[in-house]
């Protein structure tokens, strides 16, 4: 596949299409590549034991010399989390707004990376990166300093929406820059790529500031200690919790590593108003009356190692909750985390703690993503000729495309992309011209990419049926059994309570070896060794005796 | 612990308290035991590879001779699913209404069990079981022929609500028997034990019949084939789908083993109106026009092996869906299944199929459980002196108790039970007097109870970090290494792509064995063998090299 020609732009998602999270989009113009966001995603039950998952960027690495920059639309983990892994392999300059870069610098420090190539961008100020002329446009989202980005190319303007919603009464007064979006629309937008996350919600956005009365209502009736859990990057939410707490005579405690770190960055850069006099450290909680404190904490997703979960388990040294206390989860039930969050809530109820959460009280949290009417407004403002839905699972993408068609985008000028689809866009035509190498890379401990889908499949198999190892020592010449078979199991049966079962397994293998391969349905021309016989005998034993299929591994030592 | 005295009744939940599912409650009067429901629960990511989970009934078994009967309130799996495992160990007579027993008989046939002790009960007809005088009272629920049960004892009447809601316009016209409940209230109810599942929902029940217009709306606009997935035990829902399909000129196809079986039982017993002429078999779908058929299917939970999932994967021989077709999920997103259901929906969207589900269209499904206002109505009708919330997680139980207190139940006359709590109730007092042996029993293949929580912990550990086996042959006398170490891994690294890693592991163990236990932080008085050294060396290797903690298993053969 050759590079893009003069009259076209290419678009290639390496993550974030057909899934939520792990966003990474590549734009190509005149042979130069511009990367938008480098996000991570968190593991699911399908990927046990993994720390985080990042996009496979081997395609980008092969064209490292063509990459002119990495654009960060905002500071959420699903947009910047993979940067410490991606950047060392591309070493391109990084562009973003102040708060986003504040978080990136913190991340780079943790990973011992240089921050020499980080360039701060201001909204509305155009700048050139290779053949791309870029303008960051402020949009409201559940993190401060977020942006849509206009990409001016020789064939026209593309608009990459980033994550956004249209909040007309944001906490800091900075609304989405509707004028800049409308101006682009008036000048002509060739293609809009827009956030699909909440396309299945009707209506327009609820404002972030609508959470304040809901917080006040709880603070007003709270009797004891209040713990308010939210996402540590949601600075406006934290601002409102701080303001509500102080208005109700409570000082503020920051709890959780990322809560302290992110609020630290926000204070330094002026994104939050929080007086040092209103802050109490976790260690000195005991010196204050309970009804005079509000703890702002991480752990809203029921993460097993979070500080809030330790509190719920009564394992926290400084924070003990009981009857009369209140926990407010000012946060989303992120899909996949429901079970963990309900466990957290149940534990707190068992301690007599009252829990306020969005399932019972929908006003206690608002989403940062545009619902259908906001998406229509974005289309109405920008009037794009071509439309590509991004950021979402297949159902979101298909629904968003349908919405754009209903708004007048011509059917042949909109398509649903998948990760790895290389799309060519000209002023009059859009089509998928190739599929490129892409995928997920698992980060587990210090290993990045040494675990692949095959290892994941093995882990799932181990977890479902456990495993049995059969060990034998045979003579180098002739294969006579010298020692064993010995059996080792894990996750199959409780050996201490079923010792006779181990003996049965040994017997089964020993008998099968004595009889040999006959009657075991091996192909006639197969070379059958002791390990084949042992494995087959054990598999049959488990199927017949227990109706199970554990992983059976043979180990034959020759002496 | 002695048996109950003349002046008291004892109540013991062995399942279903503090959790959803696996319901089993025991009532004791004059030393005799009556079992209410014997339900199962389905596995979660915490219990990988398990088929189903049933309550531990060892306590009941020890008092087998005192068990006078098993009462089934209705035919859902979380109330009757454990019966094939529980009944053979108690061999008590089973009491239930016609449809419930129809399902039980089918189950017993599958498990090759005798049905000699099954006794059909009719609503409102009192009968005696040991010291208990019982009356089944009809209640509406998401299955036909469901019941609350009044338990008359020498110290007063207990009311066990079963699963219920107050549907005033049910599909078959049979409302909950409010008169019988009110009459009990008027006569005096000592204690109410009531379903807490939906206590966190406000308002009163939406009627089952309110689903019909929502179905009609979809059937009216559907162009191609319609597949409507729902729970196979929800006979009224199936009736409404059938009626809607026929009204819109579509014949009906029953798809899925349990759909065919349950509808078969319902037709036989007269619980559904479905003319044979309106039925088309799966095999003959191809002989009919697509817009003249409606397939009623199982698989609404995205179960990986369900027929609907095979359809979505385009792996079904007779049912192929594409653009213009519609799938209606007339069912709940059961907590824990969200990920699987969204996968199903995404697959269908990718094929161009339109999907209608309760998250976008809340009218397409209604719950079978009483929300807060129905629970208040139950309390108002029955005016119990004592109140015990049942069927629910801790948060539901605590909220339901709070609701009862707000309705006037005295604080000291209501308590939240956990599984294993033995409660003693007298006319004037209620308290937990003991904790008895209880728990979960895992059914995996043919094994019932041979897998315990320790095996589950091992499976989870295997799935998170994989496992490494190190095998060595040493001399019987002196322990000299004769062969090995050999290394076997699964779920740790991809061996084919990292062969040098295996070599490093072997080297690490060989070196450690050569050096011996010195400098490895063993206690001085510890007896340290080759396997201890090998395990410790490998653990260190993984921690340092990969930041991981696989299960390390040694196998030393002596020769």
Question: What topology does this entry show?
Answer:
2 copies of one chain form a homodimer.
Chain A lengths: L8 E7 L8 E6 L2 E5 L15 E4 L2 H5 L4 E5 L5 H4 L2 H8 L3 E3 L1 H13 L7 E3 L6 E3 L2 E8 L6 E8 L2 E5 L17 H10 L3 E5 L15 H11 L4 E4 L5 H13 L3 E5 L1 H13 L9 E2 L12 E5 L9 H6 L13 E4 L8 H13 L3 E3 L15 H11 L3 E5 L3 H13 L14 E6 L2 E7 L4 E5 L2 E2 L4 H13 L1 E8 L6 E10 L8 H17 L14 H17 L4 E8 L1
Parallel strand pairs in A: 3-5, 5-6, 6-7, 11-12, 12-19, 13-16, 13-17, 14-15, 14-16, 17-18, 24-26
Antiparallel strand pairs in A: 1-2, 1-20, 2-3, 4-22, 8-9, 9-10, 10-11, 20-21, 22-23, 24-25
Helix pairs in contact in A: 4-8, 5-11, 6-7, 14-15
EC number (chains A, B): 3.1.-.-
Keywords (chains A, B): Calcium, Cytoplasm, Endonuclease, Exonuclease, Hydrolase, Metal-binding, Nuclease, RNA-binding, rRNA processing, Zinc
Subcellular location (chains A, B): Cytoplasm
């Amino acid at each position: 596949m050759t590079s893009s020609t003069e009259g076209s732009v290419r678009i290639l998602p390496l993550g974030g299409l057909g899934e939520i999270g792990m966003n990474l989009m590549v734009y190509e113009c005149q042979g130069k590549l511009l990367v938008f966001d480098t996000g991570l995603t968190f593991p699911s039950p399908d990927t046990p034991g993994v720390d985080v998952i990042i996009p496979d960027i081997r395609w980008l690495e092969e064209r490292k010399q063509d990459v002119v920059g990495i654009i960060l639309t905002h500071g959420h983990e699903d947009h910047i989390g993979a940067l410490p892994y991606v950047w060392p392999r591309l070493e391109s300059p990084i562009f973003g707004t102040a708060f986003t870069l504040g978080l990136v610098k913190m991340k780079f420090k943790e990973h011992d990376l240089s921050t020499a190539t980080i360039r701060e961008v201001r909204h509305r100020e155009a700048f050139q990166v290779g053949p791309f002329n870029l303008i960051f446009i402020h949009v409201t989202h559940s993190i401060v300093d977020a942006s849509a980005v206009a990409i001016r190319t020789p064939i026209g303007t593309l608009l990459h929406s980033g994550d956004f919603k249209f909040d007309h009464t944001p906490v800091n007064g900075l609304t989405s820059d509707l004028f800049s979006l409308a101006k682009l629309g008036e000048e002509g937008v060739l293609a809009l790529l827009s956030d699909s996350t909440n396309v299945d919600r009707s209506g327009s956005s609820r404002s972030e500031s609508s959470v304040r009365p809901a917080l006040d209502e709880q603070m007003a009736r709270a009797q004891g200690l209040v713990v308010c859990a939210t996402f540590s990057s949601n600075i406006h939410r934290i601002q409102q919790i701080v303001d509500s707490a102080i208005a109700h005579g409570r000082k503020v405690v920051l709890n959780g590593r990322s809560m302290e770190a992110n609020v630290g960055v926000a204070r330094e850069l002026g994104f939050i108003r929080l007086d040092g006099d209103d802050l109490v450290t976790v260690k000195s909680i005991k010196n204050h009356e309970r009804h005079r404190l509000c703890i702002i904490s991480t752990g809203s997703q029921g993460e097993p190692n979070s500080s809030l979960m330790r509190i719920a388990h009564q394992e926290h040294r400084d924070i003990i909750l009981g009857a009369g206390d209140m926990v407010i989860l000012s946060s989303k039930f992120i899909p996949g985390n429901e079970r963990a969050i309900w466990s957290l809530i149940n534990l707190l109820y068992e301690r007599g703690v009252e829990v306020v959460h969005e399932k019972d009280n929908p006003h206690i949290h608002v989403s940062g993503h545009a619902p259908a009417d906001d998406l229509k407004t974005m289309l109405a403002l920008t009037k794009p000729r071509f439309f590509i839905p991004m950021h979402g699972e297949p159902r979101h993408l298909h629904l968003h495309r349908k919405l754009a068609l209903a708004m007048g985008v011509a059917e042949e000028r909109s398509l649903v992309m998948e990760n790895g689809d290389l799309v060519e866009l000209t002023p009059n035509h859009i089509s998928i011209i190739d599929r490129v190498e892409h995928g997920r890379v698992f980060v587990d401990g210090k290993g990045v990419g040494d675990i692949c889908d095959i290892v994941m499949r093995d882990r799932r198999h181990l977890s479902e049926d456990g495993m049995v190892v059969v060990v034998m020592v045979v003579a180098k010449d002739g294969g006579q059994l010298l020692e064993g078979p010995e059996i080792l199991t894990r996750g199959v049966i409780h050996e201490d309570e079923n010792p006779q079962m181990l003996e049965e397994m040994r017997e089964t293998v020993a008998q099968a070896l004595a009889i040999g391969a006959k009657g075991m349905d091996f192909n006639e021309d197969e070379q059958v060794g002791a390990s084949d016989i042992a494995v087959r005998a054990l598999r049959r034993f488990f199927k017949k005796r227990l109706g199970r299929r554990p992983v059976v591994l043979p180990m034959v030592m020759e002496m």
